[in-house]
Predict the 3D structure of the following.
Amino acid sequence: MSTAELRYANQFEIIRSEEKDRYMISQLSQQLNELYTKLFGLNNFHIYQPYIQRLSGFLYYLTTTLSNRQTIGEEYICLIQYDPIKKQIPSIIRRLLMIFFRIFGDLISKYILTSFIIRPIAEDFFHPKLSLETIELISRFLITFIERIHKIFFYLTGYYYNISKILTRIRYLIYTRSTSDSILIQTKFNHTIKFLSLCLCIQHIIESYTLLKQIALSINQHRHQLNLIAEEEKQKQTKIISEDITSSTDYVRCPLCYELAISNVALVPECGHVFCWQCIHTWVVDNQTCPLCKTNTMQSRIVHLINY
């Protein structure tokens, strides 16, 4: 005996449908890439290729979901989009939002995370600011972390393969016939799903740990570079100050002791030569002449210069 029923699609059925749609979009994207290269050549192709991929997805869903038709993957598995809140086919607005989030959701989430979460936290708790490379790594880690947590949740519950469907509350229904064999298959399927969820959790932990190490390394490298720059600036400032002091006091370097006569400066008025106060007094006591030009002078004639 078998009974027909309309039930929610399980994880494998949804994954098979998504893989079929992903393959069709990749084929369409490849054709658009070839069309672009024929029309405009390879110049700037790498710049526009991501936009061509998004355009491919939009055109695919425009001609299927937005046109009240099943996608190739949904038709292949016999899936029907369903609104569990209103218990009907999703409205055109909800389907349009789902497509918008699916195609541009990564850009929107990256902008929100970078502008309103990562940068403010970095400015508050990190000094100096994080580099653009580190911010890129952190945003990629957070987006990947959310996606992996969602995938684990999907494998465990079967709800919403895409985050875009979570935001728009769109699920899948499938029409099947249940038999005793199908019940046994469903039991084995549940065990397989639990095993896959465990494997996915282990993979998620390992890859998250690896990415966190990259982020920590990037932060340390950035801090090291900034410390080197700060140290170089400090050395430059010290050198400039030292040169200024030297240049401003070179003319009062004592010819006797070869030290800078900064405070105790003495002048021989007969010739105008400058010495240390202590040095010239010691010399004049014995010689009564200028040490440089041998001009006659006396100890009482030496002038002590103040604020020279």
Observations:
- The beta strands are 3-8, 79-82, 171-178, 265-267, 274-276, 303-305.
